[in-house]
Specification:
The protein has seven helices and eleven strands. The termini are far apart. It has one domain (18-178, 225-267). Helix 4 links the parallel strand 4 (101-106) and strand 5. The protein is an alpha/beta fold and 270 residues long. It is globular, with a radius of gyration of 18 Å.
Length: 270
């Protein structure tokens, strides 16, 4: 995902000053009944497989972010059949949106996604550059502001937050973002690294291997490295938010993200 040729997305001024980015963590279940009322006061963001739940049609998020390469631009020859079917379901459900929605996808998958939704009257496809950024705070703030890339986007909430920070929001909340993977990480007698990667829409445990971009099982040090980059990226975005004077709150109960102030969502004034 190089940065040689891309057009940075042009932010469209949001209707509301506050945004709530919905991670797909299990804690989101208890908040879903209240999100419909909240949608009249804030801009709701959905990510990845959120659209495969009933909540998608109920709360109608006006912003949606897809991050995984296999869901956007990887050739079907390079991904497992299970992932191909999941991608088809995701795109089919997004197609059902009957409300205005900006769909953000990483380059180089924008052209294909625009072709798919070119006749959709409600969906506007926007591209973002997912090139990993490294450097001083001053450099990363400047690069993020101009859409040159992202702090390593090992979790979809990272591009979602980076995109929201480039818009005219004054307050951004993270909900359903436990990131408590360490609690469910195990290594079997066969040295298989397993993770119970729970989402709010899952019916039971989701114990499986965590795969790399080539769909090979990750070793323990590779899994922990992925976690490391995710949590570090939130600190990069914290410095960016402070630079822009934007408040970012983590309203997820028992979240492992330590970069943002944690508050109860009921205590936030919109």
């Amino acid at each position: 995902m190089g940065s040689a040729k891309f057009k940075s997305f042009k932010p469209i001024a949001p209707e509301h000053n506050s945004a709530v980015i919905l991670g797909n963590g299990p804690s989101l279940r208890e908040y879903l009944p209240n999100l419909l009322e909240l949608s009249s006061r804030v801009e709701l963001w959905g990510v990845n497989f959120f659209c495969n739940s009933e909540a998608f049609d109920n709360i109608k998020p006006r912003y949606y972010v897809i991050n995984a390469p296999e869901l956007v631009f990887l050739s079907e020859d390079a991904i497992p059949q299970k992932t191909i079917e999941a991608k088809k379901e995701l795109l089919a459900n997004i197609s059902k949106a009957d409300w205005p929605m900006q769909l953000f996808v990483p380059y180089p998958g924008v052209k294909a996604m625009k072709r798919r939704f070119k006749n959709h009257i409600h969906i506007k496809v926007q591209g973002y550059n997912a090139t990993p950024l490294e450097g001083s705070v001053k450099f990363t703030n400047f690069a993020l502001r101009h859409g040159w890339g992202l702090p390593r986007p090992h979790n979809v909430l990272i591009p979602a937050l980076a995109l929201a920070l480039r818009m005219d929001f004054t307050k951004i909340l993270l909900l359903g973002a436990e990131h408590s993977w360490i609690e469910s990480l195990t290594v079997t007698q066969n040295n298989e690294v397993l993770l119970d990667h729970q989402h709010f829409y899952d019916k039971g445990k989701q114990i499986d291997k965590m795969n790399s971009s080539t769909f090979e099982p990750r070793k323990l040090h590779e899994v922990l490295e992925k976690f490391y980059f995710s949590f570090k990226s939130y600190w990069v975005l914290k410095y960016f938010a402070s630079h822009l004077n934007i408040q970012v709150y983590n309203v997820t109960p028992k979240s492992y993200i330590d970069a943002f102030k944690k508050v109860d969502i009921n205590d936030v004034q919109f």
